[in-house]
Design a protein that fits this description.
NipSnap_domain, four-stranded antiparallel β-sheet, globular, NIPSNAP family protein, NIPSNAP
Length: about 100
């Protein structure tokens, strides 16, 4: 799970950038989107996204491939100036969590 706190008034711009440039790359390399959300209450100006991986090693391998793509650097150069803070968490499912079909 990754949470970005976006500069006020810039959330829609970040979502457009991600939709047009980041999402196609994430889908190519990282595969299984669980959800992509914006905050409506609590801490505002936040974007949260969740991606499913087989395990931590699968995540590392996939993200390393993503980082090697020159288009990813272009996307980061455009999107990172909109971000004030980011936080990442590795979440492990409980025994009763729904199963998510993982992309190859």
């Amino acid at each position: 799970m990754r949470t970005y706190t976006i500069k006020p008034g810039r959330t829609e711009e970040l979502i457009r950038l991600f939709t047009d440039h980041g999402l196609p790359l994430y889908q190519k390399y990282c595969g299984s989107l669980v959800g992509y959300y914006t905050s409506e209450s609590g801490t505002l100006n936040q974007v949260v996204h969740l991606w499913a991986y087989r395990d931590v090693l699968d995540r590392e391998v996939r993200r390393a491939r993503l980082a090697e793509d020159p288009l990813w650097r272009v996307y980061l150069d455009q999107s990172l100036p909109l971000v004030e803070h980011q936080e990442s968490r590795i979440l492990r499912p409980t025994s009763f969590s729904p199963t998510i079909e993982l992309a190859e």
